[in-house]
Specification:
The protein is of the alpha/beta class. The chain has nine helices and nine strands. The protein has a six-stranded parallel sheet with strand order 5-4-3-2-1-9. α1 crosses α9. The N terminus is likely disordered.
Length: 212
């Protein structure tokens, strides 16, 4: 298996400025979309566990596109964390966090981003020993202005905001000191995947890779 490109640091939040959040409905789309993202300069993908083919899609990407960092998103049960690990996921992302889910994700040995939406939730994750987390749903929970306001009182927490972010608003988040990357579903619109327009995915990824 070939090695992954060197990230800017050892942090999962610093691998790419925009982490593509992808829903795969057809297994045959998994490898082409991963290759398109790599070609566009984004060698990472969060593949959500929202469809029946999701685990098989992770397995296919892990086997056929080793140059991409493939992770599992929408991890909501301890069992899913183990299933994602077994399928070849290299990281995990959850929309929220409970003590049981946190422990299960930690037990996999994979890097992970537990979901938070409030200061209390962020503090609970910090108390559990984890400083990197997802902020979800970002726009509905206060957006970039909210994260800016919590940077000073909770400086140890670093976020990957996800949910409602667009190519236009992503830079507002990336400018914040407590944001390492943003989750972006705009890179793989359902209509583009349905059409198999991998050139469009590559183009959207290339534009996102330039965001800082």
């Amino acid at each position: 298996m070939s090695s992954l490109p060197e990230p800017r640091s050892t942090s999962l939040l610093d691998v790419v400025p925009v982490l593509p959040v992808v829903v795969i409905d057809r297994l045959e789309d998994a490898v082409p979309v991963a290759r398109a993202l790599v070609a566009g300069g984004l060698p990472a993908i969060e593949l959500t566990l929202r469809t029946p083919v999701a685990l098989d899609a992770i397995r296919a990407i892990a086997d056929d596109v080793p140059e991409i960092l493939v992770g599992a998103g929408t991890v909501v049960t301890p069992g899913q964390a183990k299933e994602a690990l077994d399928a070849g996921a290299r990281f995990l992302v959850s929309p929220g966090a409970t003590p049981t889910l946190l422990a299960a994700m930690a037990d996999t040995g994979l890097p992970f981003l537990p979901g938070t939406a409030t200061v209390s939730e962020a503090l609970a994750v910090l108390e559990a020993g984890f400083t990197e987390m997802k902020f979800f749903p970002a726009e509905a929970s206060g957006g970039a202005a909210y994260l800016k306001s919590v940077a000073s009182p909770v400086p140890a927490a670093r976020f990957c905001p996800t949910g409602g972010i667009t190519a236009t608003t992503a830079a507002d988040y990336l400018a914040l000191p407590n944001v390492g990357c943003v989750g972006g579903s705009w890179l793989t619109p359902p209509a583009v995947l349905e059409a198999g327009d991998w050139a469009r995915v590559e183009s959207l990824a290339r534009a996102a890779a330039d965001l800082r």
